[in-house]
Each structure stands twice: as C-alpha cells, then as structure tokens.
Design brief:
mainly alpha, 55% helix, two-stranded antiparallel sheet, 6% strand, 2 strands, binds zinc ion
Length: 125
C-alpha cells in the first residue's frame, strides 16, 4: 500500500477523533456563520499534523466558501463576527474568504480584529 494513502487515512482518523471536541467547542453550530446545516470539520492546513486549532466546524455553505465559492456581499456580513475568534482556523480562515471578496470594509475589519500582527500582515500583504 502506498505511503501517501496510509498517511491520509491516519489524518482522517485523527480528524475524526478530534471531531467530538471540535463539536463541543463550536457548540454544535457553524463557527463562521452560526448555521446548524450539514456541519463537518474543515481542515485549514491539510499539509500539517491535524490539531484542534487548525480545524473549524463549518456548515456546508461555509465549506464551499472555504474552498473558493463566491460569496454574495450580504452573506459576508454574517461571517464578520468570526474574525473575533481566537481560534486560527476560525479567524484566519474566514479572513481569507472575506479578503477574496474584495469588499471595501474587509481590510478595515481585519485591521481591527484580534488577529496577531504577523498574521494580519501576511493576510493584508
Ligand atoms: Zn456556516
């Protein structure tokens, strides 16, 4: 069996294991928009060892946004509160989606957010 396959299976098993804790942290709501639809863990950094801070519990719609679906401007405002999360997968992940929209208020919202300076620079560069 190829090594990549094994590693991938192990990753998925690890993410499943973290899933319960993640759901509890999230209060069984989407950590970006608060929806309760089709919640699943989303992995912000698939190239890294899975850990709770790199995972967010997201609804189906937010997972689509995370993987590049275009958001409509009204929808983006419902995501704004997630910028105040201290969990990297929640605030950085949502910051990327917001920035991609190119809405004028986004940069300002990110500058006001509690993201650390290094991350803000990286995002706004
Ligand atoms: Zn959502």
């Amino acid at each position: 069996m190829a090594k990549g396959y094994n590693t991938n299976q192990e990753r998925l098993a690890e993410i499943n294991r973290l899933g319960k804790e993640l759901a509890k942290r999230a209060g069984f709501c989407c950590e970006w928009c608060g929806s309760k639809d089709d919640l699943r863990s989303w992995d912000q950094a698939p190239e890294r060892e899975p850990e709770l801070s790199g995972l967010a519990l997201l609804c189906g719609r937010c997972r689509d946004l995370a993987t590049g679906a275009a958001a409509d401007p009204n929808e983006l405002h419902t995501l704004r509160n997630a910028l105040w999360s201290d969990i990297p997968a929640v605030c950085e992940g949502v910051a990327r989606v917001l920035l991609r929209s190119g809405q004028p208020w986004v940069r300002e919202a990110i500058e006001e957010s509690i993201l650390d300076e290094q991350t803000r620079h990286k995002l706004l560069a």
